[in-house]
Design a protein that fits this description.
By secondary structure, this protein is of the alpha/beta class. The chain has seven helices and 21 strands. It has two domains: 176 residues, FAD/NAD(P)-binding domain (3-Layer(bba) Sandwich), CATH 3.50.50.60; 123 residues, FAD/NAD(P)-binding domain. The strands form six sheets. The chain has a five-stranded parallel beta sheet. Strand 1, helix 1 and strand 2 form a beta-alpha-beta unit. The chain starts with a strand and ends in a 17-residue tail after the last helix. The model has no long low-confidence stretch (mean pLDDT 94).
Length: 324
């Protein structure tokens, strides 16, 4: 009898794993669990939805008949826990879904804003579909916005908000924009271009507090001065979306990523992890997640091979991301 494969997450990692499993096991039961959306969409393209260039359906790499053709079962629920002894995922209301082999491809969530006053209306993130919907609903022409964080998501949000007619202050802690991928001269060109488009780029500054009046957002204290704001977007990175796995017996890193071996197996029998939520070995010997679209794709394929019993191992290819 064929195994029941359950994949938690329908991003690029989960979908690539599901397709690889189906290619090898035509009769296997394959269930894909996601609360975010019924279909796989390209998360890096959410910016183009927010700015109105695409609708969400245009970001879906596959047609909507894929699940039926591949015989994938869809479960649109939020997982609240993992019961390893029973080999089951636990959902809201106590409902359970059993598995023979489970792939955790739960991805990332926005790193919570750490500043006093951050929690509350007016502060947004831009990682999930829900984040997009909330920001799209609230960002109105004429508003004053502060975008915090000097990476790809930050510059994308700043661009869209300027296009929408908002005044934007872009607060970057580092001394130049995106030092992970750009040198000082390259970053200077980007910052100059942003300034020419109306973005107030502030480099080497620290956010100290989100200011509120009775809960209503008033501004942001940056470097000792107050910047008025009607809307704030925190783009200071992501963390593994694994909070629901605490107490499951799964080995997690201090940062919350699922510890895996080279074959992407966890410490629990029948459970694998891949993509943004998995701690993998880097060339320098460190262990941390690889939060890139392409590496998540590659890990999904390796995880599927490992689940099928192949002698598979993940090794990162030549360094690359969407900025290079």
């Amino acid at each position: 009898m064929s195994a029941h494969y359950v994949i938690l997450g329908n991003g690029v990692c989960g979908m690539e794993a599901a397709l690889a499993l189906r290619r090898r096991e035509a009769e296997a039961r394959i269930t894909i669990v996601s609360e975010e959306h019924d279909h796989f969409f390209s998360r890096p393209a959410l910016m183009y939805v927010l700015c109105g260039q695409l609708d969400l359906r245009a970001t879906e790499p596959y047609d909507r008949g894929l699940y039926a053709r591949m015989g994938f079962e869809r479960v649109r629920k939020r997982a609240l826990g993992l019961e390893a002894a029973e080999r089951s995922l636990v959902f809201e209301g106590g409902e359970r879904l059993g598995y023979d082999k489970l792939l955790l491809a739960a991805g990332s969530r926005a790193r919570p804003a750490p500043w006093p006053g951050a929690e509350g209306p007016g502060l947004h993130y831009f990682v999930t579909l829900g984040d997009l919907l909330g920001l799209d609903r609230e960002a109105k022409p004429g508003m004053r916005a502060v975008v915090i964080g000097g990476g790809l998501i930050g510059v994308e949000v700043a661009e869209v908000l300027v296009q929408r007619g908002l005044g934007v202050v872009f607060a970057i802690r580092e001394n130049w924009y995106f030092p992970l991928a750009l040198d000082r001269n390259e970053a200077a060109l980007v910052s100059e271009h942003m300034g020419n488009q109306g973005v107030d780029v502030r480099l080497g500054v620290s956010v100290e507090e989100v200011l509120r009046d009775g809960g209503r957002l008033r501004g942001v204290r940056i470097g000792g001065g107050e910047v008025p704001a009607d809307l704030v977007v925190s783009a200071i990175g992501v963390v593994p979306n694994t909070g629901f796995l605490e107490g499951s017996g799964l080995s997690l890193s201090p940062g919350g990523a699922v510890e895996v071996d080279d074959a992407l197996r966890t410490n629990l029998a029948g459970v694998w992890a891949a993509g943004d939520c998995a701690n993998v070995a880097w060339a320098d010997g460190s262990r941390r997640p690889e939060q890139l679209w392409y590496t998540a794709r590659d890990q999904g394929r390796v995880a599927a091979a490992s689940m099928l019993g192949d002698d598979a191992g993940y090794r990162r290819a030549t360094w690359y991301n969407s900025a290079k």
